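Dear support,

Our group has been running a series of protein-ligand predictions, and this particular one with zinc ion is the one our PI (initials K.S.) wants archived with full inputs and outputs. We had some confusion internally about which version of the output was final, so please treat the block below as the authoritative record. The input we submitted was:
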Amino acid sequence: MELHNSGAEVYVPDGSPLDVALSRTTHLGVSAHQDDIEIMAYHGILECFGRTDKGFTGVTVTNGSGSPREGLYGRYTDEEMQVVRRQEQKKAAFIGEYSAHVFLDYSSSAVKDPTNTHGVEDLKRIIAASRPQVIYTHNLADKHDTHVATALRVISALRELPRDSRPQHLYGCEVWRDLDWLNDHDKVVFNVQAHENLAMSLVGVFDSQICGGKRYDLATMGRRRANATYFASHGVDESASLIFGIDLTPLIEDEQLNVGEYIDGFINRFAKEVSSRIAKLS
Ligand SMILES: [Zn+2]
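Confirmed final output from the archive:
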């Protein structure tokens, strides 16, 4: 498979040929950075874990340069840091039994540049070769520019692909902003309580991101627990761990649907819910 960057790589944990690894993919996660997949797309990883009829493939769009570093990694150059981050992502892919993991190796600025079409072209090739049923990416209300840019490139790629190459579902999930604020009927709710040990391993291998004091591992597991407990105010918890998503599928079924207006709909429904409760109780 031709990818634009010379540093691009496809890692296949079980050593299968690339075409086999991609064609067995049923669930695909596309994230900006190393470690985002394990935070936002764990539902897909879990769906495919230990299964012979399903396969999860991850795609990391950026090269991981410019990431903060402290402690053991404080003296690492940008190049050394990119090597570390790729290695950590490979560890996660191995632990999670991914079918494949694709590193696209773009700078953040390249991803954020809407005139740079290379990333969209790479994504189209990967999706056409893997034909997933479900794709997970960042949610469009995330507060990290590179995350939102990645989600926009995924939508562009899918809109340019023939309809029979598009997945049945496209979900935007939680990293830099959770989705608890969505009205409940606007939430896609993923129950991810199975294999909690696996979940903890997957968010725990990214030592370079965690050791400086950013406990993404604890925060991610805590968010899932909080989502589960605070989801329903009546009755006991039905799950110990939930991830919330926004259904982005309408954006790839209707190319004319304006992306900003689509997300505004969720925000406006939330605003209306808040103001109508205050009006009711005042
Ligand atoms: Zn990220």
